[in-house]
Specification:
CATH architecture: 3-Layer(aba) Sandwich
Bound molecules: cytidine-5'-monophosphate
CATH class: Alpha Beta
Number of domains: 1
Function: Catalyzes two sequential steps in the biosynthesis of coenzyme A. In the first step cysteine is conjugated to 4'-phosphopantothenate to form 4-phosphopantothenoylcysteine. In the second step the latter compound is decarboxylated to form 4'-phosphopantotheine.
Protein name: Coenzyme A biosynthesis bifunctional protein CoaBC
Family: In the C-terminal section; belongs to the PPC synthetase family. In the N-terminal section; belongs to the HFCD (homo-oligomeric flavin containing Cys decarboxylase) superfamily.
Radius of gyration: 18 Å
CATH topology: Rossmann fold
Organism: Croceibacterium selenioxidans
Number of strands: 14
Structural class: alpha/beta
Distance between the termini: 17 Å
Length: 223
């Protein structure tokens, strides 16, 4: 029916930051609030889809009708994403940490009075790129790109290099007077698909989510 156009479709969304543990009481994190990803999950569920939301540590309520899987680290997020496939579409909004600590300390690291400890980092798996290359690649795969300069050029390159269908590029460097995009309620994005760039006017994260889900619906319901 008209108001549940995504009925029968499974949509996977990742959202929020990841926390990379240093020891039992410390972690590395980033400023992602999860608001944009949760809004997309909410909009997809409202359009009738079955939605799996793989969420990093955030203080947000689960949107109605959404199946939520909570994770902490990038490695946990990668495993949860793999377990959630297959999906008709995936929208990877999470700000996954690029690095984790190479060795997790089983006990709280103590001040030793001399030099501070060095954090040795290891690269995290690129979840989006591995979904793009997997045999279970969704029909429509959407990545996000937080950029502070040459937003459209960088995101256009990222679309190709990651092997995804669309990139939603957001200008996180924009001074909007509201504390920035990360944690804020507004977003200014560009939707980049093959050979096409759409510049969307500044709008709420809910409005970005609704418009993106409309676009996804066009693709997912055309056979
Ligand atoms: O390369 P960059 O981190 O800018 O790419 C951002 C996109 O890739 C986002 O969609 C993000 O969710 C995804 N990503 C991922 N796993 C990573 C890093 C990024 O899924 N380890």
């Amino acid at each position: 029916p008209e108001h549940r156009p995504l009925f029968g479709k499974h949509i996977l969304v990742t959202a929020g930051p990841t926390h990379e543990p240093i020891d039992p009481v410390r972690f590395i994190a980033n400023r992602s609030s999860g608001k944009q990803g949760f809004a997309i999950a909410a909009a997809a569920a409202a359009a009738g889809a079955r939605v799996t939301l793989v969420a990093g540590p955030v203080a947000l309520a689960t949107p109605p009708g959404v199946d939520r899987v909570d994770v902490e680290s990038a490695q946990e997020m990668a495993a949860a994403v793999k377990a959630a496939l297959p999906a008709d579409a995936a929208v990877m909004v999470a700000a996954v940490a690029d690095w984790r600590t190479k060795d997790f300390a089983q006990e709280k690291i103590k001040k030793r009075g001399s030099a501070p400890p060095a954090l040795i980092l290891a690269e995290n798996p690129d979840i989006l790129a591995s979904v793009a290359g997997s045999r279970q690649r969704p029909k429509l795969l959407v990545g996000f790109a937080a950029e502070t300069e040459n937003v459209v050029d960088n995101a256009t390159r990222k679309r190709k290099s990651k092997g995804v269908d669309w990139i939603v590029a957001n200008d996180v460097g924009q001074a909007d007077g509201k504390g920035g995009v990360m944690g804020g309620d507004e977003n200014t994005v560009h939707l980049i698909s093959e050979g096409k760039v759409e510049d969307w006017e500044p709008m709420s994260k809910q409005a970005v989510a609704r418009r993106l889900v409309e676009r996804m619906t066009e693709v997912l319901t055309s056979e």
